[in-house]
Amino acid sequence: MLLEVNDANFDEVVIKSVKPVIVDFWAEWCGPCRMISPIIEEISYEFEGKVVVVKCDVDSSPSVATKYNIRNIPTVLFFKDGKIADKQVGAVPKNNFVAKLNALI
Questions:
Q1: pLDDT for 33-78, tens place per residue?
Q2: 2-104 belongs to CATH 3.30.365.10
Q3: pLDDT of 1 over the 90 cut
């Protein structure tokens, strides 16, 4: 299941999660973000129960984007135990995301 996070609930959903978390930083106007969106959604179903998958709109959550130094989108951060464990910038094939997730599980 894909969740939306924002400045208000980011720490609760992502940092305090006992499971690994993948965070897709995106914006409505971003073409490459729209390209990977279906991939992120597929991953949310395929890894349900093992990984928390969330999306964070950088336009509506500027504090989180600034805190994690998000300069280009899409940027996907992989969190484990409340810390960044890996990062992927730009639109890439699904297997890139899956390989990074499998390394965290």
A1: 999 999 999 999 999 999 999 999 999 999 999 999 999 999 999 9
A2: no
A3: no
Report the alpha-carbon distance of residue 34 to residue 38 in Å, rounded: 8
Q: For the sheet containing 21-26, what is the strand order?
A: 2-5, 52-57, 21-26, 75-80, 83-89
CB-CB neighbours of 17 under 10 Å? 17
Based on the number of CB atoms within 10 Å of its own CB, is 70 exposed (0-12), middle (13-18) or buried (19 or more)?
buried
The residues annotated with a catalytic role in the active site are 30, 33
Q: What one-letter code names the amino acid at 89?
A: V
Give the number of other CB atoms < 10 A from CB of residue 73: 23
